[in-house]
Amino acid sequence: MGLTDEQMGEKLEAVKKIQVFLDPDPTVKGLVSLNYKLAELQLAKDHVSGMILEAMKNMAEYEILRETSQNIHDRQLDFLVATDPSVQAQKSAEARAIHARLKMPSLVMDLHHADIAEVKASWYLKCLQLVSSNLESANSNLSRQITVIQMDQNLQGNGGGRNIVKTLNI
Known about the structure:
mainly alpha
């Protein structure tokens, strides 16, 4: 069975607590601070990646449940249209389908709930993918900060303006 609404909510609350603040001026604290932030960011990315895998499995489970509900609903609808005299007495195909659905309210509600659960699972997955995208963006910004520090160190270590460009190891 897929994740419940409560489980998805708890997991999203935990994700909301993930915060990695980048230094406004990366040259002040230096590479040590940025390396620490890089490790912190990587842990967060790994955690969210694991959650995304779980959310993808969750989404697949809810798709299967919805498909199963849809098939049961459709089979019963076809059965009633083919065999029930009161359904067959209706004048149009649309009226027959409506009359048949009125005779199977639990299956109609099961399908409705399965549709809702699938939408919620999709929303949960998209939320996690958005967080992952934001973490990737922060990682990119952090990499740029590391480059800035390395360039600053290379320029400060340069004697008299010679060999301004040095190899940057990122």
